[in-house]
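Hello,

Our lab assistant flagged a job as stuck in the queue for most of the afternoon. It eventually completed. Since we weren't sure the result was trustworthy after the delay, we are filing this so someone can double-check. Below is the sequence as submitted and the structure that was eventually returned. Let us know if re-running is recommended.
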Amino acid sequence: MLILAIDTSGQSGGITLAEADTASFRVIESAAIAGGTFSAQLIPTLAALLKKHGYGVKDLSGFAAASGPGSFTGLRVGLSAIKGLAETLHKPIATVSVLEALASLADGAGKIAAAIDAGRKEVFLGLYEKSGGALIHQQEQLLAQQDFLATLMTEQPAVIITSDPALAELASDSRFPVVVVTAPGSEVVARIGAAKLLAGETVSVEALDANYLRRSDAEIFFKGNR
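-- returned structure --
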């Protein structure tokens, strides 16, 4: 199957075109999209990538979407594009949490704590159990830094994985092994999404939504002034 993955969760983003079946996965090509240009560049970049490899949108078999947590604006752009394409083409969608993508990069088995700096002295934390190559979701939450450390002490993960060196330094106070990796992008989203599509783990266009974990400033402001 021919898969398109979109990740617009961060300051920069990307799309990946990949082929997959039950026995193999191959990235055809990935293309980066600069931050601040998602709305203007996403569809033209997608069209150019398909054309370069001799495909049209009707050749796509399914979509993989980075669903967050991350940039409110960026996630809306990426998910809206996938919604429009999937609805028009009647193709399935698989969602991939950014924390899930990060956790998938950890070696070994056992409980994995995937952590992303959320700003405002807060941390996005995802807890997963890795066994036999499968990654099982346990929970994802937004925590203050002190609660993040307390949660690590309670959960006792086999490894903590993050793409933020400052957060790794903070996590080192927990005395559990900490691994720093490059932030996963659309290629990792494509790989995880392909497995979900092939397994039938999909969401409908109507159910596709962002996994923000945090309310927007507008929601917080509105509630505080009601």
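-- support follow-up --
The delay was a queue issue, not a problem with the job. The result is valid. Strands lie at 2-7, 13-20, 25-33, 62-68, 93-97, 110-119, 122-131, 134-144, 159-162, 178-180. The mean pLDDT is 93.
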